[in-house]
Amino acid sequence: MGAYAMTMSLTEDQRDCYQEITNVAMGQAADRLARLLNVYVILPIPKVNMISASELHMALAGTTVSDNVSAVCQGFIGSGIAGEALLVFNDASFSDLAQLMNYKGPLDRHGELELLMDVSSVLIGACIHGIGEQIEVSFNQCHPVVLGQHCHVDDLVKSGNHQWSQTLAIEIHYEIEDVNISCDLLLLFTEDSVAKINQQIDYLLD
Amino acid sequence: MALPVLICDDSSFARKQMKRALPEGWDIDLTFAGNGLEGLDAIRQGKGEVVFLDLTMPEMDGYGVLEAIRKEDLPAMVIVVSGDIQPDAQERVKKLGAMAFIKKPIDVKKATEILTEFGILSEV
Could you give the angle at the alpha carbon of B82 between the alpha carbons of B34 and A115, nearest 5°? Predict the structure, then answer.
């Protein structure tokens, strides 16, 4: 392992701190969703890793059902830290979601898109805000982009043009109790941001 | 005699934050546990008359610890400290016998407020 690879790995304390911060932020996001849908969101322990572009596919495929997904991504930036939030939704979730949201329209691609955008704005917005608040960075969010509907996870990854070698990834799996709704939120920071965000983490650990 | 206080959280960062939020000069005998099973063990040994308990943990989660405390009738006053702030989570832990709920990230004044409210902290 070269010196470069060494600088790109996380210490146990850093990983623990990222996990705890994410845990708090995802709890805030779950609270928003729980109040919106009147449900209980099951919260697992988030995964924090340095991953390479080729491992991104594994991170995605390992999280949810890999065929029949719909996905949204949304960039965020603040204080020299930038990244993308990627929300991958299991298509089987839409009928239950429509019911909980009291969505009366036809559940076609447009209807699903509306639900997808509503849920992603809640989950992504609250999560990014929650992390930012704890590391004292105010993130601005870019416009959300639909990556695909009714596609395979492979298609999501293929559509991206990865120009990075290794970066920080935070994976959160959300499930709603008693109904068939699940999604994965993946936060990917740009390679250039890792040093800066690690610095914020080290400041908290100090 | 110093009061046995237990901080049970799987994150070392969270344990440190919790310790920092405890009132200064409080005469306690502090123990740390990294998961629910370790925490329960410590409580059985009388090391947790007051317990600051996280909910999301490996091995045994906070709900499991609360259930065991109730089942074994252990003498522990539990304050849940969690990032899971959903209305349901707060209701569930209260039903399971938790004395209070503090949301993460912990506010330094909050622990003192609650300890005073329940008469655990009379004078510091």
Answer: 125
The CA distance from A35 to A63, in Å, is 25
Q: Which residue has the higher pLDDT, A64 or A79?
A: A79
Coil/strand/helix, residue A83: strand
The pTM of the full predicted model, rounded to 2 decimals, is 0.91
Q: Residue B18 burial (CB < 10 Å; 0-12/13-18/19+)?
A: buried
Question: Please, are residues A74 and A144 in contact by the beta-carbon 8 Å criterion?
Answer: yes
Query: Å from B63 to nearest chain A CA?
Result: 13
Residue pLDDT, tens place only, A66-124: 678 999 999 999 999 999 999 999 888 999 999 999 998 899 999 999 999 999 999 99
Q: Is B35 on the interface with A (CB under 8 A)?
A: no
Cα separation, A119 vs A144, whole angstroms: 12
Q: Token pair for residue B88? A: 């349901």
Which of B13, B85, B86 faces A20 most closely, judged by CB atoms? B13
Q: Give me the sign of the Cα torsion angle A129, A135, A136, A137.
A: negative
- Residues with Cβ within 8 Å of residue B113, at least 6 apart in sequence: none
Rounded to whole angstroms, the Cα distance separating A59 from A52 reads 10
According to DSSP H, which parts of A64-158 are helical?
Answer: 94-100, 109-135, 153-158
Type of residue numbered A141: Q
Q: What integer best gives the mean pLDDT of chain B?
A: 94
Closest CA to B83 of A126, A21, A98, A156: A21
Q: Do B56 and A17 touch (CB under 8 A)?
A: no
Inform me whether the C-beta atom of residue A79 falls under 8 Å from chain B C-beta atoms: no
Question: Which chain B residue has its CA at the smallest distance from A134's CA?
Answer: B105
Name every chain A residue with its beta carbon within 8 A of the beta carbon of B84: 27, 30-31, 43
